[in-house]
Design goal:
Blueprint: E1 4-10, E2 13-21, E3 26-31, H1 45-50, E4 54-58, H2 77-91, E5 95-101, H3 103-114, E6 119-125, H4 137-153, H5 162-172, H6 178-188, E7 189-192, E8 195-198, H7 214-223, E9 228-233, H8 244-248, E10 254-259, H9 266-269, H10 271-282
Parallel strand pairs: 3-4, 3-5, 5-6, 6-9, 9-10
Antiparallel strand pairs: 1-2, 2-4, 7-8
Helix pairs in contact: 2-3, 3-7, 5-6
Length: 285
Amino acid sequence: MEPLQRDVTANGLRLRVLEWDGGGRTTVLCLHGFLDSAWAFFEVGPALAAAGHHVVAPDLRGFGDSERVGAGGYYYFTDYLLDVADLVEALARDRLALVGHSMGGSVAAQYAASFPERAWRVAMLESIEFDQPPEPPPRRVAAWVAAVRQARGRPSRIFPTVEAAAERIRALDPRCPPATARALAERGTRAVDGGFTFRHDPLHVTPSPFPFDLARVKAFWSALRCPVLLVQGGATELPLPADLEERRACFADARQAVIPGAGHMLMRHAPAEVARLLLAFLSGG
């Protein structure tokens, strides 16, 4: 099932949205991870829609076909929360479930904690394992300034063919099936002089000036009152933090699942199993 593609203005930016409409009154808002796009859900979305759900997946700001920030702008994490709040107002039906992968899971959880009256369920796919070593704020800001200046003056990497872009996906994610890599490369690149380049804004690859604050993130997790599904890839490439069980304990109502053989990009590795777990969760299982 090919999705309907449309543009929605959220937080002043034009965001591209994919929509698989199963006709139901439950909207499942799917949020992709870092350096990814809405097409991350191209195999999961149709399965959810076939069960009667209204499924929408946006390209987050500066990713895919969504608008980039203007001159002088940057991508701060809280920007995504306002974007999602506007998307929910524009697109969501009677009941809202949020599904997020990696960074998208963090966005989903923080939105749901901030607007508990709107969020019915939250599924976080490989989203609570992330960690970052502490770094003095002055050093981090200096590194951020240098990285942004470099990114603004550096052209995007160009691949001679779509096949070469697909090979790059598989080089970074060897578990990704070749057909999936090809489909993502076709949808995730744009033609430029000399070949093809991935659609994300180069500013995304720069380090944020604000370090990862686990205490702050845990405060959001602890504020969640709706049921939460935590899904982990059994072969994830992420180094699991020593306090993983403490993180899981932050959630008042959490269900856990592990997909054997799947890595961090589990929607590529086991889309049918991801869809099965989500459907069971959305049906009350």
